[in-house]
Write a structure and sequence with these properties.
Layout: H1 3-23, H2 32-53, H3 66-85
Helix pairs in contact: 1-2, 1-3, 2-3
Length: 86
């Protein structure tokens, strides 16, 4: 994994975490690191869900619905996080 890939994962994770925080009520108290972590974990969960629904084409670098599924995964993780922390 190259430096560019790592940097890109952090940026996309932060954006996905911000979107999930905006959708889920009461989640605005998270900081930069927790928001980025939420987005990255949400991307992993979304990728797992996407892999269950359909496999990406052979040789493709990402799932076509990856960004959308990352947001869905982050929302699921955030709901679980809120349920366990309250």
């Amino acid at each position: 994994m190259g430096l560019f890939h790592l940097l890109w994962s952090l940026i996309v994770g932060f954006i996905v975490g911000l979107i999930a925080r905006a959708v889920v009520p009461g989640a605005q108290h998270m900081g930069l690191i927790l928001t980025t972590g939420l987005g990255i974990v949400g991307s992993l969960v979304g990728g797992f869900i996407g892999g269950l629904v359909s496999r990406p084409k052979e040789g493709s670098k990402f799932h076509p619905a990856g960004f959308f599924l990352s947001i869905i995964g982050a929302i699921v993780v955030l709901f679980l996080f809120n349920m366990l922390s309250h």
